[in-house]
Write a structure and sequence with these properties.
The chain has twelve helices and 32 strands. By secondary structure, the protein is α+β, with helices and mostly antiparallel strands. It has two domains: 219 residues, no CATH class; 313 residues, Aldolase class I (TIM Barrel, Alpha-Beta Barrel), CATH 3.20.20.70. α11 runs parallel beside α12.
């Protein structure tokens, strides 16, 4: 494949909606600056990628949604396959073929959902494939140049998207897009954009992605030194119905298990947003619970969705000015960024976004983290943290969606301190390298293998719903990130033999995938009700996981040999183990290498 730059585009947010400005420039010299509407884009081509910046040369402020470089892919031997890396924890990652597959947004055309699972909530163009932060393009040719790994060299200042499509003139076009989400540039203001690397070297796609992740992680100060962790979490058995009695019953028998962490999940809080106060199901309060967990020799962990608030929460009642807004038909309205009927909240489950560009909100988040750590919780699971990315009206209009996420995470890290373990979940992954210790890298697991088409809630987005098959796919596809960008959290293994649709072979396949991945090993079963073989199964996962993690510590994370061969990859190898998961049959084979 030969990469030829043809044009630069800028998308401005105006009163009439997003509007594209396109400047066709042909072949770009080694360094150039071009005007695209009122925006100047300065571009420098390197042997291994490009560096660029953007400036507002107009007389008034500009709201800039995207800046993009359009490349023509010459010499492609079709079919062309694309590794589609997902935007946030739950966004699917896998391989698609140009002209065969399409973007899920063309089926849904539902910005409320698309804003959660993609950087840009707008519907993709027909026939277009997209990948967030990094990608692999591979054609049917052999030898050097027929596969290319692309990756943004950062993600805390703005998001990055790769879009590929076939044009009517037969040309295959790649759009490398810096997504700024409508951030305001004042007259004369200049922003440096994250550079983009190209890698056409020899090696498997998984190895080349690992090399990109290593560079990106090192540049961003990735936190990769935390110990291998084994833990228990309340969510997948008790969900939000969990009680203090449930927690204590499991804590009473947890000494017989090799847990480093004992984590309370959703269901304890007085309301979404009111995290310091417990509801009637938890009469002892957080301080006592954390102290009792510590007395058993485990790290107390707690779940929270820090950037969301229920309409009837105390935080909203006392501080309505802390909420982001959107322009409604009759004036400003609170920005509703998520919907979960189980949470109630006064508006049938709709939740508001806290405005992380408001200094008072950042002070609140910092103090919240400080208070939870002071209460004894040294493991914080931060969930639904895509909330600041949703299109709306924010106190500081100059901030990009990526910056809004990072501001919130940085505030929590300041309050929590450097020693507290922070796990990101439901988070735009590129935004938090260097601030989290671990990240969820797939959708929720579930006590079933796969969903049926009839189970789809939003058209095109079946794979974001909880299912073990989807968790396997994500764990394999994102295995190259482990200890390069953070510690991978593949989600909980399933030890239960009752109240589950997972047969023994399917549960074993998921066990093996988690083990060889080297990531966090979490259990979320009622420990009093698991079968007699549960402890032996966990011990095997932990033993294999430690070996795989040790190799990742040496700079060689697990790798997938079939990453670009199957739509849903299922092959994963580490230092001494090789697992093949048949994602259709829900079976697996494991061998030592």
């Amino acid at each position: 494949m030969e990469l030829v730059i043809e044009a630069i585009t800028a998308t401005l947010d105006t009163e009439g909606g997003p509007h594209d400005h396109i400047r066709s420039i042909g072949v770009v010299p080694a360094s150039d600056a071009v005007m695209v509407g009122p925006v100047q884009v300065s571009l420098t081509l390197r042997a291994d990628g490009l560096s660029w910046s953007v400036a507002n040369r107009g007389d008034g402020p500009v709201r800039l949604r995207t800046v993009a470089v359009l490349l023509r892919l010459a010499g492609v031997v079709e079919p062309l396959r694309m590794f589609r890396h997902g935007y946030q924890s739950w966004s699917p990652s896998g391989v698609a073929t140009l002209g065969v597959h399409d973007d899920p947004s063309v089926h849904a055309n539902f910005p409320f959902v698309q804003g959660v699972y993609h950087a840009d909530s707008r519907r993709a163009r027909d026939g277009e494939l997209r990948s967030e932060w990094c990608t692999v393009l591979a054609d049917a040719g052999v030898g050097p140049g027929h596969q290319v790994v692309f990756g943004f060299e950062g993600g805390d200042q703005h998001d990055g998207t790769f879009r590929v499509r076939g044009r009517e003139d037969g040309v295959i076009e790649l759009r490398i897009e810096a997504f700024l989400g409508g951030a305001m540039l004042r007259p004369g203001e200049e922003r440096k954009l994250h550079g983009v690397s190209f890698d056409l070297a020899e090696g498997t796609p998984s190895e080349l992605l690992s090399r990109w992740a290593h560079r990106a992680g090192r540049s961003a100060g990735a936190r990769v030194s935390a110990p291998f962790l084994v833990g228990w979490c309340s969510w997948y058995h008790f969900f939000d119905s969990v009680t203090e009695g449930d927690l204590r019953r499991n804590l009473a028998v947890a000494d017989d298990w090799p847990f480093d962490v004992f984590q309370l999940d959703d269901g304890y809080q007085a309301a979404i947003g009111d995290w310091r106060d417990t509801n009637a199901k938890f009469p002892s309060g957080l301080d006592v619970l954390a102290s009792d967990i510590s007395a058993h020799g485990m790290k107390p962990g707690i779940w929270l969705a820090p950037f969301l608030a229920a309409p009837d929460s105390e935080v909203v009642r006392l501080h309505p000015e802390w909420i982001a807004h959107v322009q409604g038909e009759s004036g400003l309205e609170p920005l509703r960024s998520w919907w979960n009927p189980a949470w109630g909240g006064g508006e049938d489950g709709f939740m508001y976004s806290l405005d992380t560009t408001n200094p008072d909100v950042l002070g609140h988040l910092e103090q919240l983290a400080r208070d939870l750590v002071a209460a004894g919780f040294s493991y914080l699971k931060l969930d639904f943290t895509f909330a600041p990315t949703i299109d709306g009206l924010w106190a500081d209009p100059a901030r990009t969606p990526a910056e809004r996420v990072r501001l919130g995470y940085d505030a929590i890290r300041r309050g929590a301190g450097e020693e507290t373990f922070i796990l990101g979940c439901g988070v735009p992954l590129a935004n938090v390298v260097g601030v989290v210790d671990a990240n969820r890298i797939g959708p929720d697991v579930a006590p079933l293998w796969a969903l049926k088409p009839a189970d789809e809630i939003v058209s095109g987005y079946l794979n974001v719903q909880p299912a073990t098959r989807s968790a396997v796919s994500a764990t394999v596809a994102r295995s190259f990130m482990h200890r390069q960008l953070w510690l991978n959290d593949p989600d909980c293994i399933m030890l239960r033999s009752t109240v589950t649709e997972l047969g023994p072979a399917a549960a074993e396949a998921w066990d093996r995938c988690v083990a060889v991945s080297g990531g966090l090993v979490m259990v979320s079963d009622d420990l009093e009700s698991v079968g007699p073989d549960a402890r032996a199964r966990l011990d095997e996962v932990v033993a294999i996981g430690r070996v795989s993690d040790d190799e990742a510590r040496q700079g060689v994370p697990p790798r997938s040999s079939d990453l670009m061969e199957d739509d849903v990859p299922g092959t994963l190898s580490s230092a001494h183990f090789h697992v093949v998961v048949d994602v259709d049959a829900a079976t697996s084979t494991l061998r030592e290498t």
